# Entry
Amino acid sequence: MKTSKARMFNRKASNPKNKPDQIIEAIPLKSGQNIADIGSGGGYFSLRFAKIVGEKGKVYSVDTSPDLLEFIKNSANEKR
# Structure
């Protein structure tokens, strides 16, 4: 699987110009809640959401690319 596309999406999402922290703060997400990350790309927000909702919550990463979803799955497993 090519990971360069996923890493590129994550670099763009995490760029301070795109205000990722403000995006996270705008969503009143709490431990135990569920959230869907539609168009999840490389999973930058999915992984941040997962940290917030914890083990009792769920993050649904949705993307049209199976390779990107596999990248997110692998990244989440590495963070466990």
The two ends are 21 Å apart (CA to CA). The first strand starts at residue 34 and ends at 38. Residues 41 and 51 are 18 Å apart (CA to CA).
